[in-house]
């Protein structure tokens, strides 16, 4: 079946078409939720962010001008709201499990190793400064270009690249230290 573009759905939603609004929301809801989960670290905060972004979207959909892709515009809103949440709240490094989606069920030992590795990466992401964490999220998980990220964050492309590579270096070094420590414990 023919898949309507975001712009077409926006036009219909602005005319009061509830089905178009629901399609638009359902198209981006999952990626917004997982964006919040990875960036904020808890299901509750991810849900709060999702609801907040959808409320802003509902009130401001008519302000979308089409200068960039709708997804880029929407994640610009999510970026702003997430950074605001990070500034206002203090997070604990609790042991709350992150949602995982498995394409196939690997052997139990392999699954446990994968979970442990994912957990280490998530902990390292949370230890990064919010600006670096945000850039990694947008680049790896949302697959925005450096220029799109720069536009969303209102900084230069070089600043985005600097934050990106600094974050990767920090994560690499810490993951290497963690690996050495784990090897020494066996």
TrEMBL record:
Q: Give the RNA polymerase sigma-70 region domain ranges.
A: 24-90
Q: Name one Pfam family in it.
A: Sigma70_r4_2
Please report the stretch or stretches of sequence annotated as the RNA polymerase sigma factor 70 region 4 type domain: 119-171
Give the UniProt keywords, A-Z: DNA-binding, Sigma factor, Transcription, Transcription regulation
Q: Which domain of life is it from?
A: Bacteria
Would you identify the family this protein belongs to, as annotated?
Belongs to the sigma-70 factor family. ECF subfamily.
> Would you tell me the protein name for this molecule?
Sigma-70 family RNA polymerase sigma factor
Show the taxonomic lineage. Bacteria, Pseudomonadati, Pseudomonadota, Gammaproteobacteria, Chromatiales
């Amino acid at each position: 079946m023919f898949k309507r573009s975001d712009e077409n759905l926006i036009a219909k939603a602005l005319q009061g078409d509830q089905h178009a609004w629901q399609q638009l929301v359902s198209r981006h809801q999952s990626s917004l939720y997982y964006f919040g989960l990875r960036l904020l670290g808890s299901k509750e905060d991810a849900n709060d962010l999702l609801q907040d972004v959808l409320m802003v979207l509902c009130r401001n959909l008519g302000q979308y001008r089409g200068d960039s892709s709708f997804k880029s515009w929407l994640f610009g809103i999510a970026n702003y709201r997430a950074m605001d949440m990070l500034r206002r709240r203090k997070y604990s490094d609790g042991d709350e499990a992150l949602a995982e989606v498995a394409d196939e069920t690997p052997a139990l030992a392999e699954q446990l190793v994968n979970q442990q590795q994912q957990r280490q990466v998530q902990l390292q992401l949370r230890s990064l400064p919010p600006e670096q964490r945000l850039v990694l999220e947008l680049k790896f998980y949302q697959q925005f270009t450096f220029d799109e990220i720069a536009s969303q964050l209102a900084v230069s492309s070089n600043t985005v690249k600097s934050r990106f590579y600094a974050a990767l270096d920090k994560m690499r070094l810490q993951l290497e230290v963690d690996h050495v420590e784990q090897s020494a414990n066996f």
